[in-house]
# Entry
Amino acid sequence: MDAIAQLSLAAIDVVLALALVGLAAGALSVRSLFTGVVLFVGLGLLLALAWVRLDAPDLALAEAGIGAGLAGALLLAAARRLAGPVHRERIGDDEEA
Amino acid sequence: MPLLVRFLAATLSLAVGGLVAWAVLGLPESAGLREAVTAQMDRSGVSHPVTAVLLNFRGYDTLLEVAVLLLALIAAWSLRLAPPGRSPERPGLVLRELVRLLVPVLIVLAGYLLWLGAHAPGGAFQAGALLAGAGVLLALVEVRPLGATPPFALRLLAAAGVLVFLAVALLAMWGGRLLEYPPEWAGLLILAIESAATVSIGLALAYLFRGDEPTTHREGGERT
# Structure
């Protein structure tokens, strides 16, 4: 029973590590800013899990709150400003109907 | 050209990563400063070792961290605002009701995390992040709960974390050294610093999201 628990934890760690690298690569290489930010937020949340696995719950809380949450919100706001007025008007026309 | 740059960057990253891994794997088995911290825990004023290190033993680093956040806010405030990125659509009913439900919960949770920091994972930065989350949500539905507060008071609140921290640090010099709290007062002093820092961090992060400076005339009629 204990061995199974150990093994599944190790499997989770491997998946976590691979997903982190994958998300980081995706966030950097994807073309759309919005998708990049979404991948970055996902990276932050998984990174919080990684901190939990490393027995650092304090860092996990800070990473989830500041690294993923607020940095994500800041990046989304910046991406929206960079997108310019054309994009926003199009959204507005869709929603107004 | 960009391909060459990419190749060089990748090679450099791999080299640095390999070097770091090699250095970490080569470290001798050691408990680090764990024993030194454990030995001094009963003089720190709190029972959670991370808080003891952050707010007492290495309070200097945290003081500078809070100051850096204030500097970032001042820098953002001294820049001119980018063209408004606010989406033209009105915030929908679902969003408004969700914010109405979430904001009080976030404020209570922030207070809980702040109090919890003394003996479990939590503390000023996490609590401040929750407050800032509430601020971001309110900004999304264009509610300005602090719209009637004088800008000077808001600026003072944003600086409160650094000011209280500095005041405590300097007060500790009276009969001691910088940031060396007397053990019997340490718990109370840490709570005071963390409370002020929570408000300042929350305000700073929320204002970094909004990007504008607190002013009297601009906010005027926008409150819902």
Summary: Residues 1-30 of chain B form one domain. Chain B has two domains: 1-30, 39-81+89-222. Helices of chain B lie at 2-25, 34-40, 49-57, 59-78, 93-116, 124-140, 151-171, 183-210.
